[in-house]
């Protein structure tokens, strides 16, 4: 049995790729600025395969990313009566979720412990680690309660105390209870939540962080 292998440099140079941008937080047009393409055939498995390694640049914000695209002749999807297309597997670095944008440079206004937990949670969320992301979301809520000296013997009571202190609105507290429940299931039942659930929960927590820490600091700096 034999196999073949081929390597081509910059075959994809200047080509356009539509993929999520880590800064624009949505799918944008990217330009391939460098590439290495590998392709081959395995006679033993009777499979043709291709892998493209690309350095890409967003044509909007100019951010540089790394992209890997993989296809093979075994992974096909039917698009017509007699038409089949290869399923494209895409990996991006840094990892990201389409439509989700982090706090960016505003993260500097968070207390150091909270900033660290936020960074770790963002990383596992983007790397498709749903159980750890759920635990991280709960840890962020706990860290806010600790930093604001919320009273109570459990997280449920502490969230309610934040509302009593007017750190949170009553509706905000109710939403955080949903994040608390999500985190409990991740921590105690090892339950993975969907990417949509986790992304929405992260948006809720980020909204709280903006209200509690970021916006007051920005107002203080601008209107001092």
Concise description?
By secondary structure, the protein is α+β, with helices and mostly antiparallel strands. It contains 5 helices and 8 strands; from the N terminus they run ββββββββααααα. It starts with a strand and ends with a helix.
Notes on the protein architecture:
By secondary structure, the protein is α+β, with helices and mostly antiparallel strands. It folds into two domains: 3-93, no CATH class; 104-222, Four Helix Bundle (Hemerythrin (Met), subunit A) (Up-down Bundle), CATH 1.20.120. 41% of the residues lie in helices and 27% in strands. It contains five helices and eight strands; from the N terminus they run ββββββββααααα. It has helices spanning 112-126, 130-147, 155-164, 170-189, 195-222, and strands at residues 3-9, 16-20, 27-42, 47-58, 64-72, 76-78, 84-86, 89-93. The strands form two sheets. Strands 1, 2, 3, 4, 5 and 8 form a six-stranded antiparallel beta sheet that branches. A hairpin with a 4-residue loop joins strand 3 (27-42) and strand 4 (47-58). Helix 2 (130-147) packs across helix 4 (170-189) and helix 2 (130-147) runs parallel beside helix 5 (195-222). It is elongated, with a radius of gyration of 23 Å. The mean pLDDT is 89.
């Amino acid at each position: 049995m034999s196999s073949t292998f081929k390597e081509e440099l910059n075959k994809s140079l200047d080509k356009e790729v539509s993929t999520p941008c880590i800064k624009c937080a949505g799918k944008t047009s990217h330009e391939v600025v460098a590439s290495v393409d590998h392709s081959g055939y395995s006679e033993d498995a009777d499979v043709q395969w291709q892998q493209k390694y690309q350095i890409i640049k967003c044509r909007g914000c100019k951010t540089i990313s790394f992209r890997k695209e993989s296809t093979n002749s075994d992974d096909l999807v039917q698009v017509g009566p007699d038409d089949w297309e290869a399923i494209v597997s895409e990996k991006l670095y840094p990892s990201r979720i389409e439509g989700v944008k982090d706090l960016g440079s505003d993260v500097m206004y968070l207390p150091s412990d909270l900033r660290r937990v936020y960074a770790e949670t963002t990383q596992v969320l983007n790397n498709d680690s749903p159980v750890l992301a759920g635990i991280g979301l709960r840890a962020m809520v706990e860290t806010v309660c600790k930093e604001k000296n919320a009273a109570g013997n459990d997280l449920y009571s502490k969230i309610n105390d934040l509302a009593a202190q007017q750190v949170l609105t009553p509706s905000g507290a109710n939403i955080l209870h949903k994040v608390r429940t999500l985190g409990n299931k991740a921590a105690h039942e090892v339950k993975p939540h969907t990417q949509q659930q986790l992304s929405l929960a992260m948006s809720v927590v980020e909204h709280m962080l903006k209200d509690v820490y970021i916006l007051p600091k920005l107002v203080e700096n601008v209107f001092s």
